[in-house]
Amino acid sequence: MTVEVKRPSRFGLFGQLWFQVLAGTVIGVLLGWLAPDIGSAMKPFGDAFIKMIRMMIGPIIFVTVVHGIAGMSDMRSVGRLALKSIIYFEVITILALIVGLVAVDLWQPGAGMNIDPATIDMASIQGYVHTAHDQSIVSYIMAIIPNTLVSAFTEAHVLQVLFVAVLFGVALAAVGERGKPVMNVIESASGVLFKIIGYVMYFAPIGAFGAIAFTVGQFGAGSLLSLGELIIEFFVVCAAFTVFVLGAVCWWTGASLWRLMGYLRDEIIIVAATTSTETVLPRLIEKMKKLGCEEGVVGFVIPAGYSFNLDGTCLYLTTVALFLAQATNTELTVWHQLGLIAVLLLTSKGAAGVAGAAFVVLAATLGTTGTIPVASIALILGIHRILAEGLTFVNLIGNAIAVLVIAKWEGKLDEKVMAAQIGTRRTRQRVLGAQPA
């Protein structure tokens, strides 16, 4: 595997995508703050960019997964890869749920609010509650299987595309030489699709501008002030989980969390502006391959992680659920909280492919446990998008680290390539050891 050397832009700092997106974000914040009505009207710019990315997700996942699986010499490795991924996802998910639960129990951001659920207006959350009633374990599993081969792509369901791609990749490998012409087409299509993504990313600064201008203009500073303690607590928990839990896991792979975040700075800024990890899924696949992770691992772990490895979403769900219990003076015993974690282990897996995903899953979880009033979720409707800034960031970093972990676990991480891109703990130790006393 060759190491790609990135040439400096002709325009210096101004030619860097992260700087352009950051500039668009700052301008959007200022517009939403100074002219809220105009800022709210900028929403179509953000929506258009997200739609352009979403139209590419299905085809890119398909060609990446098919090419990766068909290129594996041993089909047993596919099953082993899936098993290791699920084990890792579940362990990290449980950690995230526990960390979120303990943190909100200690901080108590909702204590003293004394909200009476009977006085809450349900009109604003009816759509979310209705969608939540349609979520169940059986319906979620059945939804993984598309109605037709084509509908997996037209409905933009990540797990459906992954399901079809795995079947196609295994079948392509099974036919041997006869499948080579198809493999050549897949390789050519992959190059074309990633080229299109490159074109779409030119619109990222405009999309970031529109998305953040709408958020600030629509919800304003009032939402920040009224529920400020919850926002601060959640962001602190997200930062702590990233540094201590994900940082420790990243250290095990030999990589530096800070250098990895620097490597993904473009994606981090885009996710922060759009509050959607889908907007960077194609670029994340491409970057993790360039980081030294084998294509088959990247192609499987990232799409699967978008449904099963939602660390930030789990932090959000436990934090907000217990906050609402505190705000409405709902007493939760230790057994209630353990039951909440058990339910969230299942319901959190349905947070992909649903509009307002985390909010819908929250409503479904409260409805399932029956302890915390479902009506209370209206309290955080105004700040949900602000909280999404934290959860999407953690989801992004968590999925990037998951690829490194599974690749290293499978022996399919090229540490020389990773060292050339971001350096490794071992190379830094050698450098420090070589320095004169």
From TrEMBL:
It comes from Stenotrophomonas tumulicola. It holds the Pfam family SDF. InterPro entries: Na-dicarboxylate_symporter, Na-dicarboxylate_symporter_CS, Na:dicarbo_symporter_sf. It is found in: Cell membrane. PROSITE patterns: NA_DICARBOXYL_SYMP_1. GO terms for cellular component: plasma membrane. Keywords: Cell membrane, Membrane, Symport, Transmembrane, Transmembrane helix, Transport. It is a multi-pass membrane protein. NCBIfam families: PRK01663.1. GO terms for biological process: L-aspartate transmembrane transport. GO terms for molecular function: fumarate transmembrane transporter activity; malate:proton symporter activity; succinate transmembrane transporter activity. This is C4-dicarboxylate transporter DctA. The chain crosses the membrane at residues 12-35, 55-73, 85-104, 156-175, 196-219, 231-255, 354-380, 386-407. It comes from the Bacteria. Its main location: membrane. Gene3D superfamilies: Sodium:dicarboxylate symporter.
